[in-house]
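From the shared-data thread, chain only:
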Amino acid sequence: MLFCGGHSFAQSNAEEYQVKAVFLYNFTQFVDWPENTFNSPDEPFIIGIVGDDPFGNYIDEIVKGEFLGTHAIKIKRCNDIRSTLTCHMLYINSTDKEKVRTILNAVSEKNILTVSDDPSFNKLGGIIRFYTEDNKIRFQINLSRSKEARLSISSKLLSVAKTN
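Structure, as tokens:
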């Protein structure tokens, strides 16, 4: 899927999260993690989901057999903060600002790309926030936080995002 200013979607919640799942996978192709992120060439790239999983099996199917370089992409459902610390990308599904803040504080020293739908996510220190505009899924990127996490975001991705 190309990042061409957002993707139109039907009002179905399932379809919306299918599109967002594809975006999550595509983010792996437009973000560079620091060299020392992986302990070995075959360590998997982990996309974590914390909170209720809105993607179901769809996200597992998208990443099945996919790699980021030599790293197989895997999905991990996280039940506690400790399990989020081994992720490389983390989708946070919560509207509880204190819970979101706690998770973001826990991963702040890590090279983790954080993503959420929460309207205040970027203000709380998250990196990418999904939002809907003109019936299209779009995203906003917190550049200062991505730099703190030492993540390099492609100019192609930045060109179709709102930044702050």
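Residues 7-163 form a domain with the Rossmann fold fold (CATH 3.40.50).
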